[in-house]
């Protein structure tokens, strides 16, 4: 364990089929300091185990003294110089005098019993204080060591995941991975923290007690062990069963977490297709196996627990019956000749009792260790996975000067996830330094694959790729990517400020100045809109850039690529999401940026690559044509047909070349957009109450009542009742046992007749057996019934949380605290944590309460004075427990918040791994991840010693209580003639009650975690979504949106909830007649896509009204409205399901026939591609459609929209990712689909909407121009300027 840790190594290698790791492997990341702490903890825990048997020895000595003192006729003293001698001729055991004790720890020459009690009190107090010290040492050391190791391990795991090659991510469901890893690491921490010390301490107690018992009475000790073989075999079988079921439960929850992350990440798509109910059912189905496995595990634990209690108490009955029988029957002339007396009987019994109890305490820890070992399998498997393409490695060449000469030689490639589908089939081409080469062709032909191979996301299956004559495999991966600037087809921004998003594009991002950032933004035509925002470059962009329009995101991504000043530029549809004005300016900037740089451009808009030095035309994985634009056009081959098909929709005759003005004269200069966004409208809120309420999930200050948590378990109250009955039986067993114990001690009174004593001994033994069976039944009922209740509660809470999340408005998801990662952490962590206040915890609470109350009642009945004096410790123990709960709740809340934030960061990085890898941000994200954990890590280490002291004192409170109880009890025996057996009864009942409270306190962290989780759960499930409110107040006519599809906007004002200072729509009004096709055009961020989202009721306007068929949509059900609307978005979201399921997702109100799915695919021009796949329509699309190209995803999204036959069709840049040939076919399909429907199109390519019935030009949140294409051209306004500019660019 002293070896230095490494994040990635083959040490502690995990077999592929392994379901758990060796326990020692869990400590793989312990440093020398951690090992020293652990050794100190182990030593302290072992020494702690010696204290209890020594206390028992003192107890046995005192028992002899008290019983002997009560025998007034024997004239017994404890003097070593007793005048009493053995004159009977009977054989006495060694070290015993006639009628004197066999066991005598201390000698006392005084006849005063209180002198002997003083020895007992001082010795027990000193041992208890030592135990407090040992508890403090091992709990503090182990918890600090565990915090150190897990803090380190979290960083290593995330670093290892981010360092894996892209093919590793392709073949795994990385959605939910960060959440699962966070849960697994929490389980590992449980398995290497204080529970290890408690396990060693309890084991040490058990061993020490066994040794002591056998030393003083091996025969009697053997009698007690008759049940040991059965217990051992049972424990082994149950441990194996529990391990298997835990693995199944973990796997089920991991699958459910992955599904939840995918669904929440695609929440707009889920809402649009009214899939909330379907996804809730699917999530419910995914967690059912976990519930089943949990209940089976509970059954196994219950059987084991019941058996342990039955056999333990049965062995107690046998021990006492046999021991007392030996003492009573071994007499000679009225004098005892047995080698056993009350002292030895107590020593053997209590040592065997404590040994058994502490062995019993080990079972829950074995379950914890088993869970940790199972959880560690996937964690260490990730750590042991050494990637072939390792971005974190320092190995590889780093050229001092790179020219950028690229060469591909006979490159073959197939994705690892689809090895039967060749993507590249022996392509070869060369790009000399400083030249620009464009890659064109149909979607899925291999263009983007070349870009990914050049970044070494993958390695070719055959062939070679070189840069400046060096094989890219020889380069240091990180260095290679630092010298390549990339702008992808679907730009990914991180949930941070615009400034950070841009500067992170530079390899030395910490040294980037504000001037550099602004220069890059200006080159990408992004500076003006950024400067217009209230927080300028400090504006948070939201998750995946959700607060920005598609064009704004694309421009920031371009700025991010330009700031690194790379030698090689890769543009994969870099301007696909830009409006006409921005594209012209940015294209000009890109043309300048690529001067002197080697540039590869992947493009579907062929007009953007006409000036490329070389154009490579791809077709089915091979280069079919090569040359410049003019050469290829003269060939009249594939490229010529692509250009022709794209240009057929564009007619230059529609505008007059004589009237074309430069951009500056058209007002298209930097600043115009800034002026647009700076103007703020003062808008009254709808009905005096904004509907854009933010609903953060921060816990309220109000505490959650335990009864409120119990109410969630209401359907299981039958199980809970049975569990409580079982807990009551367990709770009663302790004071009843104390009564029987006192009576058994009373049998040793020399004044009692031997025959009567033996008869009573038989009766009490039978009572003891009754306690055994009652306790066994109670333990089984408590464990099994409350496990069922707990597992069903967890199942219900997960379901409720997920359903509540799906009901929320889209604006709620825009908040940082409601990111995908954060919500998934709450979904898994809070649902599991709430069991800390229910389930088995209820049973333990009832058990302790019954035990304490019954013990106090019995004590008051026997002797109220002794009961009051001894009972003073009960409130002390309870108060210490409350203190520990309060302290833990604060710590747990802070830790939960930190884990939520850190998991969000990890989720963001893992789900966007391609962007992270291309920017070389693996280390940065890992650093941010660790920084988010640093503060709670420090706080946890600081609070650990305080909790350790409280825990140590509480666990030893029974020792202190026994000192007070026996001291005062002895006083009452001596001065008030109190029968000594009553003292034993009261002391045993209260002392064991204290120990029960101590056991309960071991679970206070779970209770504190449950209360914290409950706050957040109730806030979420009790906050009604605005949809729910309006759904309950819909007018009768609003529930029948069966009209023709008329859409009307009346004086609509709108601001996004996360940017209340920026007015997006400023009194927009228009009427769209049914069956007409209306196009929305304008600059990026002008409000086009916002209108689409408002029409889907993703948001509500601040003021104004939106009507569909003359009915206010705010008064109708959002689900009913969306069922009449079809949508194809700019960035289509597909699910990790089959292609057929993704298409059928468009209409969930019925079972869509396969023929209909195929027809929709044909209409979207995707059927042929699907048929070419080995599995056809059963092919899995991958996470977010990762196994498909951008064009293929877009066409599947179109097929999905067509399947539902909507009354209103919304096309938000629906063909932006298509190649020229596909666009023409799909455009025809969309035109056919739009016939007879109201069709609203958002487009930047004006050529695609020139035939629309009406075109609305939106500027500064208002409609500035309106009319047909020809009318707007003749108007020579904004639309004419945009058209002209696009015409010039072509």
UniProtKB/TrEMBL annotation:
Enzyme type, top EC level: translocase
PROSITE patterns per UniProt: ABC_TM1F (PS50929), ABC_TRANSPORTER_1 (PS00211), ABC_TRANSPORTER_2 (PS50893)
Keyword Metal-binding: no
Annotated membrane topology: Multi-pass membrane protein
Broad class of where this protein is predominantly found: membrane
EC number annotated for this UniProt entry: 7.6.2.2
Superkingdom: Eukaryota
Domain ABC transporter: 406-645, 1047-1285
Alphabetically ordered keywords of this record: ATP-binding, Glycoprotein, Membrane, Nucleotide-binding, Repeat, Translocase, Transmembrane, Transmembrane helix, Transport
Catalysed reactions, semicolon-separated: ATP + H2O + xenobioticSide 1 = ADP + phosphate + xenobioticSide 2
Localization annotation: Membrane
InterPro entries, alphabetized: AAA+_ATPase, ABC1_TM_dom, ABC1_TM_sf, ABC_transporter-like_ATP-bd, ABC_transporter-like_CS, P-loop_NTPase, Type_1_exporter
Alphabetical GO biological process terms: oligopeptide export from mitochondrion; renal tubular secretion; response to insecticide
Transmembrane segments: 36-59, 117-144, 196-216, 222-239, 298-324, 344-363, 717-740, 763-789, 842-862, 868-885, 948-971
Domain (ABC transmembrane type-1): residue spans on this chain: 40-371, 722-1009
MF annotations from Gene Ontology: ABC-type oligopeptide transporter activity; ABC-type xenobiotic transporter activity; ATP binding; ATP hydrolysis activity
Entry GO terms, CC: mitochondrial inner membrane
Name of a matching Pfam family: ABC_membrane
Similarity section: Belongs to the ABC transporter superfamily. ABCB family. Multidrug resistance exporter (TC 3.A.1.201) subfamily.
Protein name: ABC-type xenobiotic transporter
């Amino acid at each position: 364990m002293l070896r230095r840790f490494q994040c990635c190594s083959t040490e502690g290698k995990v077999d592929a089929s392994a379901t758990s790791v060796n326990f020692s492997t869990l400590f793989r990341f312990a440093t020398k300091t951690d090992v020293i702490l652990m050794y100190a903890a182990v030593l302290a825990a072992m020494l702690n185990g010696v204290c209890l048997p020594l206390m028992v020895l003192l107890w046995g000595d005192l028992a002899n003294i008290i019983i002997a003192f009560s025998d007034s006729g024997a004239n017994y003293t404890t003097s070593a110089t007793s005048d009493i001698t053995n004159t009977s001729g009977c054989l006495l055991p060694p070290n015993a005098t006639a009628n004197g004790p066999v066991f005598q720890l201390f000698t006392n020459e005084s006849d005063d019993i209180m002198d002997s009690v003083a020895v007992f009190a001082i010795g027990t107090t000193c041992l208890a204080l030592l135990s407090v010290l040992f508890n403090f040492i091992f709990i503090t050391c182990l918890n600090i060591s565990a915090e150190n190791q897990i803090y380190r391990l979290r960083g290593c795991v995330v670093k290892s995941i981010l360092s894996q090659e892209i093919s590793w991510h392709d073949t795994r469901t990385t959605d939910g991975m960060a959440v699962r890893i966070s849960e697994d690491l929490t389980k590992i921490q449980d398995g290497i923290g204080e529970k290890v010390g408690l396990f060693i301490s309890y084991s040490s107690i058990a061993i020490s007690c066994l040794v002591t018992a056998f030393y003083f009475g091996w025969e009697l000790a053997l009698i007690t062990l008759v049940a040991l073989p059965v217990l051992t075999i049972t424990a082994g079988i149950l441990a194996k069963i529990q391990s298997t079921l835990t693995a199944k439960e973990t796997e089920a929850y991991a699958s459910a977490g992955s599904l939840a992350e995918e669904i929440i990440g695609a929440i707009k798509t889920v809402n649009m297709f009214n899939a909330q109910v379907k996804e809730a059912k699917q999530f419910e189905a995914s967690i059912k196996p976990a519930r089943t496995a949990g209940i089976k595990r509970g059954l196994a634990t219950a059987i084991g627990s019941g058996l342990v209690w039955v056999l333990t108490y049965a062995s107690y009955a046998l021990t006492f019956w046999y021991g007392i029988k030996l003492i009573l029957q071994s007499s000679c002339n009225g004098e005892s000749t047995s080698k056993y007396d009350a002292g030895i009987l107590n020593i053997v019994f209590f040592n065997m009792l404590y040994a058994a109890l502490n062995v019993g305490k080990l079972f829950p820890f074995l379950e914890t260790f088993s869970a940790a070992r199972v959880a560690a399998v996937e964690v260490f498997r990730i750590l042991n996975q050494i990637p072939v393409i390792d971005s974190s490695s320092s190995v590889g060449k780093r050229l001092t000067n790179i020219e950028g000469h690229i060469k591909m030689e006979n490159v073959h490639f197939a994705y690892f996830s689809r090895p039967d589908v060749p993507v590249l089939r022996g392509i070869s081409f060369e790009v000399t330094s400083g030249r620009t080469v464009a890659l064109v062709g149909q979607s899925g032909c291999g263009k983007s694959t070349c870009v990914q191979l050049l970044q070494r996301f993958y390695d070719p299956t055959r062939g070679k790729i070189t840069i400046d004559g060096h094989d890219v495999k020889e380069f240091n991966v990180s260095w290679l990517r630092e010298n390549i600037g990339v702008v992808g087809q679907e730009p990914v921004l991180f949930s941070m400020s615009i400034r950070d998003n841009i500067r992170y594009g530079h390899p030395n991002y910490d040294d980037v100045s504000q001037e550099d950032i602004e220069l890059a933004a200006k080159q990408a035509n992004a500076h003006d809109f950024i400067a217009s925002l209230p927080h300028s470059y400090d504006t948070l962009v939201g998750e995946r850039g959700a607060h920005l329009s598609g064009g704004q995101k694309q421009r920031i991504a371009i700025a991010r690529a330009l700031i690194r000043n790379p030698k090689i530029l890769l543009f994969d549809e870099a301007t696909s999401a830009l409006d006409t004005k921005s594209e012209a300016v940015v294209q000009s900037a890109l043309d300048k940026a690529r001067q002197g740089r080697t540039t590869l451009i992947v493009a579907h808009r062929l007009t953007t690559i006409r000036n490329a030095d070389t154009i490579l035309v791809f077709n089915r994985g091979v280069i079919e044509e090569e040359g410049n634009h003019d050469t290829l056009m003269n060939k009249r081959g594939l490229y010529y047909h692509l250009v022709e098909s794209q240009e057929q929709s564009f007619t230059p005759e529609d505008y007059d070349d004589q009237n074309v003005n430069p951009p500056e004269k058209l007002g298209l200069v930097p600043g115009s957009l800034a002026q647009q966004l700076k103007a703020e409208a003062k808008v009254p809120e709808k009905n005096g109450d904004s509907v854009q309420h933010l609903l953060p999930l921060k816990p309220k200050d109000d505490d959650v009542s335990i009864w409120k948590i119990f109410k969630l378990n209401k359907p299981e109250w039958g199980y809970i009742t049975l569990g409580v009955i079982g807990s009551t039986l367990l709770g009663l067993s302790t004071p009843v046992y104390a009564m029987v114990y006192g009576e058994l001690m009373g049998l040793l009174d020399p004044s009692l007749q031997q025959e009567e004593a033996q008869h009573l001994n038989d009766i009490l033994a039978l009572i003891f057996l009754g306690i055994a069976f009652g306790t066994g039944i109670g333990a089984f009922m408590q464990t099994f019934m409350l496990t069922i209740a707990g597992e069903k509660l967890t199942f219900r809470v997960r379901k409720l949380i997920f359903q509540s999340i799906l009901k929320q408005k889209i604006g709620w998801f825009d908040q940082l605290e409601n990111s995908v990662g954060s919500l998934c952490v709450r979904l898994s962590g809070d649902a599991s944590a709430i069991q800390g206040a229910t389930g088995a915890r209820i049973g333990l609470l009832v058990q302790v309460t019954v035990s304490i109350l019954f013990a106090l009642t019995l004590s008051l009945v026997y002797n109220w004075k002794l009961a009051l004096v001894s009972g003073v410790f009960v409130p002390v123990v309870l108060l210490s427990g409350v203190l520990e709960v309060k302290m833990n709740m604060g710590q747990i809340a802070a830790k939960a918040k930190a884990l939520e934030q850190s998991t969000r960061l990890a989720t963001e990085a893992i789900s966007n791994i391609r962007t992270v890898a291309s920017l070389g941000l693996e280390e940065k994200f890992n650093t941010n991840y660790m920084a988010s954990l640093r503060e709670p890590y420090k706080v946890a280490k600081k609070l650990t010693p305080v909790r350790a002291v409280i825990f140590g004192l509480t666990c030893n409170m029974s020792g202190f209580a026994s000192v007070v109880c026996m001291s005062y009890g002895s006083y009452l025996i001596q001065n008030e003639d109190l029968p000594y057996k009553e003292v034993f009864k009261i002391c045993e009942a209260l002392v064991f009650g204290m120990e029960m409270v101590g056991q309960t306190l071991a679970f206070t962290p779970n209770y504190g975690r449950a209360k914290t989780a409950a706050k957040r759960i109730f806030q979420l499930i009790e906050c009604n979504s605005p949809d729910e409110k309006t759904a309950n107040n819909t007018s009768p006519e609003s529930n029948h949106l069966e009209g023709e599809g008329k859409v009307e906007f009346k004086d609509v004002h709108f601001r996004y909830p996360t940017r209340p200072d920026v007015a997006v729509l400023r009194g927009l009004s228009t009427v769209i007649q049914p069956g007409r096709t209306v196009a929305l055009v304008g600059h990026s961020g002008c409000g086009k896509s916002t209108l689409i989202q408002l029409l889907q009721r993703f948001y509500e306007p601040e003021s104004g009204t939106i009507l569909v068929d003359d009915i206010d949509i705010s008064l109708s059900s959002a689900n009913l409205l969306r069922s009449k609307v079809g949508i194809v978005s700019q960035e289509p979201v597909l699910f990790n399901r089959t292609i057929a399921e993704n298409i059928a997702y468009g209409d969930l109100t019925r079972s869509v026939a396969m023929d209909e799915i195929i027809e929709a695919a044909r209409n979207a021009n995707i059927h042929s591609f699907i048929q070419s796949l080995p599995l056809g329509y059963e092919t899995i699309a991958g996470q977010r459609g990762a196994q498909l190209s951008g064009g293929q995803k877009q066409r599947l999204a179109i097929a999905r929209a067509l399947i539902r036959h909507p009354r209103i069709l919304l096309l938000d840049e629906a063909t932006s990712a298509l190649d020229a040939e596909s666009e023409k076919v799909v455009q025809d399909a969309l035109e056919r689909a739009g016939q007879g429907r109201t069709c609203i199109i958002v487009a930047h390519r004006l050529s695609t909407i020139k035939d629309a019935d009406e075109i609305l030009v939106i500027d500064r949140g208002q409609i500035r121009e309106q009319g047909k294409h020809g009318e707007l051209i003749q108007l020579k306004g904004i639309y004419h300027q945009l058209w002209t500019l696009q015409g010039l660019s072509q």
